[in-house]
Amino acid sequence: MFKHISALFIVLLFAVLSDAVHAFDDVMNYDSEYKNIKVGQSTLQSLKHHHGKAVRVVEYDNFTKYRYKKFDATINHLDGKVRTIIIFDRSYKDANYLSIGESRSKVERTLRASKSAKHLVDNENGIVYWFSDDKVSKIVLAHQLRR
Questions:
Q1: Is 75 exposed, middle or buried (0-12, 13-18, 19+ CB in 10 A)?
Q2: Can you give the C-alpha Rg of the chain in angstroms?
């Protein structure tokens, strides 16, 4: 009886681990950069080195958000690395040559996607475009996105 239970346990454990491995397959990693800060690699130390003291710091459960004049950077509590860079800088052009203030229709044409949501995602480059009044209001460079 114990052999059957332990064999069943091993089969169930293998199934769970197999699902966990496939779950990681659904996550894409990116290494975008903005003003010497690289998602997934830069730390709070490098953020302070390149940009000085943050204007505002907000603590969340899993990360801390550091506000600067033209961007925010979130630092993951688990590994101390930059998770996202949230850009408000109107002079910034991203990997798609898009910037703050671009029309939703231009972003949709560039990404070849249409979705009536508050944001659109570029899974090739790890970029999320947020809209306000059908204009890009912020550009988020992400370290990881689900496919």
A1: buried
A2: 20
Bridge partners (DSSP) of residue 73 are: 66, 85
Alpha carbon distance 30, 39 (integer Å): 7
> What is the amino acid identity at position 36?
N
Distance in angstroms (rounded) separating the CA atoms of residues 46 and 31? 15
CA distance 5 to 85: 49
Token readout for 140 is: 């988020």
| 4-17 pLDDT, tens digit each | 444 444 433 344 44
Residue 130's SS3 state is: strand
Q: What is the pLDDT of residues 99-143, one digit of tens each?
A: 999 999 999 999 998 888 899 999 999 999 999 999 999 999 999
Half-sphere exposure of 35 (CA within 13 A, CB side): 19
